[in-house]
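User: Before I run my own analysis I want an independent prediction to cross-check against. Here's the chain; please return only the structure tokens and, at the end, one sentence I can use as a sanity check.
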Amino acid sequence: MGISIIGEKLKEAQRKKNEERELAKNDMNNWFWKGPKKVVAGIRMQSKEKLLDASLEQLKTWYNHCYEMLWNKNATNPGRYVLKDIVDDQILNCGTELLIRLQENRYKSSDREALPRTLFYKDLTTLLSSPDTKDSIDTNNWDKIPIRACIANCPEEFRDINARKVLDGCLGNLGKFSRKHITLTFILNMGINLTEEELSLFKTEAPNIMEAVKNKLGIPDNFKIKRKSNGLTYKELQSIIHIKEIDYTSMSNEVLLLLRDKMLPRLLDEIYKQIYMWEDLLDKLNKVAIKNFDTTLDDGTTSGQNRKTEEVSKELD
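Assistant: Structure tokens:
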């Protein structure tokens, strides 16, 4: 049998497997509601109930829970869409502070004359308030103007930042960065990738390098940390692990870059996955309610919330 024929047979087998998986996924008999995980007699267990067997009241209760997991504004445990907005803003704030430092020659220093943030603010407000700009763009819409339209040769890394955000940054109004939604477990799951210099430091401290890292950073024994090729360096881990709340202006360039380019994007990726999971459950609950009770669970409160947006779909592709 020729290689090309074998290849075609493998493709056909994979196609059939994908079709079967898709059919199983869309079969209502395979849709379940999973309860909270519990430890019973030392064994971790999780109950699950078939959606098709649920009463209308159960479906409504589960539907409301999904909605809360997406949209509630609780400060401690916000809905995933709310948390997404928080993290998006934190990424912009980190970038804004770096942009202002670029003007001050405190980030990617060059031989150009430094522009203090007070003068940067003055120059930017003068530009935005000029007759040409003022007639076409209202002050309230300065958040619609990309900063790269205001600065010559603005680096691509700042393309998502708007003029209003920069003005706030110049005035010190970006607020404080809070790490309360970035758990220690999430940070440690990123893993660690020790540099050669860092490896040489820990080889003399303990035979188990990971234990040495944990001891040096004061990480509790019940937490695990693994070495990963795309993980944090020891210096990065050390710089972020004990931060709780801090002004953006007080962060080092290294911490701002770590948050903007590595940690917060990974957190966003997890949030997108959680959004899709809860949205998928909402959709399934609604389909079961239509099938079994000839009614929908969406009473109109969720309309306009842009669930399952193109943005979420693109991020998950």
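Sanity check: Strands lie at 32-40, 43-50, 176-178, 245-247.
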